[in-house]
Amino acid sequence: QLPTGLYKKVLVILHDSILPYMNEPTLMMDFLTVAYGIGGAISLLALNGLFILIHQHNLEYPDFYKKLYSLLDPSIYHVKYRARFFHLADLFLSSSHLPAYLVAAFIKRLSRLALTAPPDSLLMVIPFICNLFRRHPACKVLVHRPNGPEDMSEDPYIMEEEEPSESRALESSLWEIQSLQNHYHPDVAKAAAILNQSLSEIEDDISGLLELSAYELFDKEVTKKAVDVPLEFEQVRGLFGKKNDIFAEHFTLD
Question: Which ranges does the record mark as transmembrane (predicted)?
């Protein structure tokens, strides 16, 4: 039983400053698996250490992807460790041997949560989803299904299901990304519109988007050069600008 603050401090440096210097890093298996099961930010931070044990020390974790799937909640786009989580999630979902139903469940859940995500997160997660389609072409049925649900109540995907295999994600369609094509932020709408075209085989580099913040987006907008807007060549007359407007007899713009 460690205090939450100490738990986080240990997990932040565990993969970099502790595991490489241990004679038997596998001794940390129980600690990391317990931390991974706690939930919230502690589970996110435990991913780094677990990745090293799985990748380098043959740790078997049967419910690893089920737990990773359960970590996807609305806060995932707002937490402090968002960049670290999506960097590792990208690694975990990079294998072409993963079943299509599992990847489709991740795509669908990320897309559903994206409906309430801020623009800086959307500009990161949409290329992330596109990369998953490139790695797993069997999931493209989510984009190209001709008879998708017309409203959310008809979507067969079960958002509350904890088991990815039971979520029925492959039976659904990606109407969430289609709705983001009408997003108020033009960059988000442009990014979401990529799915209307055939995706290239080359994956998008999302490393520069993981740390993107709302402040950077705002600075980018305010520093844009103003475009000259063409104006009417006829001088406006009256209140509503019409030539034969009765209001022009009683109101002027002077």
Answer: 31-54, 85-107
Please give the C-alpha separations between residue 164 and each of 59, 74, 234, in angstroms, as whole numbers.
22, 17, 62
Residue 198 · residue 134 · CB < 8 Å? no
Task: DSSP letter for 23, please.
Answer: S
Distances (CA, A) of 226 to 186, 202, 239: 16, 34, 28
Burial class (CB in 10 A: 0-12, 13-18, 19+), 5: exposed
Residue appearing with tokens 């085989």: 201
Query: Which of 171, 145, 146 minimizes the C-alpha distance to 157?
Result: 171
Q: Which two tokens stand for residue 92?
A: 């975990």
Identify the three-state secondary structure at position 127: helix
Q: Residue 139's CB: how many other CB atoms inside 10 A?
A: 24
159's CB contacts (< 8 A; 6+ apart) are 109, 112, 167
pTM: 0.74
Rounded Cα–Cα distance for residues 156 and 88 (Å): 29
